[in-house]
Structure formats: structure tokens, C-alpha cells
UniProtKB/TrEMBL annotation:
It comes from Armillaria gallica (Bulbous honey fungus). It comes from the Eukaryota. The lineage of its organism: Eukaryota, Fungi, Dikarya, Basidiomycota, Agaricomycotina. This is Uncharacterized protein. Gene3D superfamilies: Glutaredoxin.
């Protein structure tokens, strides 16, 4: 699925993906792609390394 860069955070939150990191301000967070969601288990996995291991 193609996702606009401005929509990555909302999509990640919607599917329950963990944030990638915390921003220095301590309030906002970073969400990055790639992200996959396994519909059979509901798992949301991000980062190429974690996806390959999954």
C-alpha cells in the first residue's frame, strides 16, 4: 500500500506499530517505514531487520 509521508504516523498508530524513536523535545515521536501488519495475528512490525526476522 502506498502511504503519503505525512500519513505514516497516523497509519502506524492505527495498526498499533511501535514508534521508531522519541524526538529530542520529549513530547513528539517518530514513526518510519517499512511497516508490515500480519492480519492473522494482528502483529505490526517495523524496520527491515525486524521484518526479516519476523
Amino acid at each position: 500500500v502506498y502511504v503519503e509521508i505525512l500519513d505514516v504516523e497516523a497509519l502506524a498508530k492505527k495498526i498499533g506499530a511501535a514508534r521508531t524513536s522519541d524526538n529530542p523535545d520529549g513530547v513528539s515521536h517518530e514513526y518510519t517505514i517499512p511497516i508490515i501488519q500480519d492480519h492473522s495475528t494482528g502483529a505490526a512490525v517495523f524496520s527491515s531487520t525486524a521484518i526479516a526476522a519476523y
